[in-house]
Fold this sequence. Notes:
Blueprint: E1 28-33, E2 38-49, E3 52-61, E4 134-138, E5 143-146, E6 150-153, E7 166-169, E8 182-187, E9 190-195, E10 202-205, E11 212-213, E12 219-222, E13 227-230, E14 233-237
Parallel strand pairs: 6-7
Antiparallel strand pairs: 1-2, 2-3, 4-5, 4-14, 6-8, 8-9, 9-12, 10-11, 10-13, 13-14
Amino acid sequence: MTCGYCGTELPATALFCGECGRSLAAPLVRRVSPAADTAILTAVDLEEIDGATVMTRVRAVPPVVEPVETPEPQPEPVEVSRTAPVVVEDPPPTPVADPWQPPARLLRPTPSPRVEEDIEKTRIVSNRVTGQRFVLQFSTGESVTVVGTGIVGRNPVPEPAEYFDHVVTIVDPGKSVSKTHLEFGQTAGSFWVSDRFSGNGTVIREPDALPRRCDPGKRYRVARGTRVTMGEQFFVVS
């Protein structure tokens, strides 16, 4: 027989193991296999021979393995979104004008106060500039009294946006005088003339002084008794 603890081969009549000293009279020995890590049960049959108890057989009893219930796999929980569902509402229908709807009542405008028609003529007022009076005595025999500003020539015409108190036209058969020859006026009681870029120019001859030719666009003060020559014509300021 074999020792149920250390596995040593022993004679059939042995009561103790000569290797490990264990008693062989135990009815059941539990031995663990280190290789398989499995519990092995050993049963011992004893008989009484000649008044002595003798182990006659040793047999292994397979361990009782209780069935292990394998838990059934549980489905993984599914997270349910708690967000409120988004509801998309259709836009309200656009109202369509009823083609048979009667037109709105038109309000009559409030009549404006009646304005009487103005048929009267414009009243002419005097807006002449006050100042010194000067007399222009022309070589053609004409004499003109002026106050304020004016232009002189064969056919004098003011430029756009210009205004003059006097427009003096002289007769010049030889056409030596330009259509708009010169401009005149007064400042602080002094008379002045200015050439308007005429063809033959303007010359000033003051008493007891040498004649001076005027530069176009420049004003020249002249005293009373001065002679102003325009081409073949002239006038005297008095």
